[in-house]
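Same chain as my last thread, 207 residues:
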Amino acid sequence: MGFALYDFILKLDYAALRLINVTLENAYLDQVWLFITQMHKYRVMWIILALLLGYAAYIYRRRLIQPMLALTIAVALADTIAYRVIKQVVDRPRPFQNEELRWVRKIGQAHGPSFPSNHAANCFAGAMVLAWYFPSLTIPVYILAVLVAFSRPALGLHYPSDVLAGAILGIFVGWLVIRFTMKRIRRGNRDDDSWNWRSKSRRLSSN
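reply #2:
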């Protein structure tokens, strides 16, 4: 029974990969997915990010330290757990390394084991934290996370199950970081009536 279920899930994973990577093949979309999955490698994106961060620092000043620290911890923790722990234990070959899947279209480069996707884990961990502290960014950050995650099987670099597991891991890690930082804030400021952690911590712009 267990083996039959595993075989069914594996076939479903392969079918989803074939749909995303082959059936929906489009030369123009391939370039879009490649750009999305490699955004962190483009210098212009880092310049834009630096400008946005500078603007946010000007608006929120010291209040920006807490969400940025939480964001850094969440992404670093998700990346470490995915790459240093889970990938080393599971050690799943990538789709283009699977001899059974000769139809896989490999676009771009990827190294190391396949499960789970670090891209998905990092993006969803970051989205979870940013959406908590800045609710107005919820839709855009999650759309970006979904696009990055979808780009991985579209390029033949991950299985759909890899990105799903990475997304779940990222959301869980983001939630843990939020819970920890919120508890620390509440405990550290319980005697300060000027700080209402329930209403103000998520909407820093209201202060």
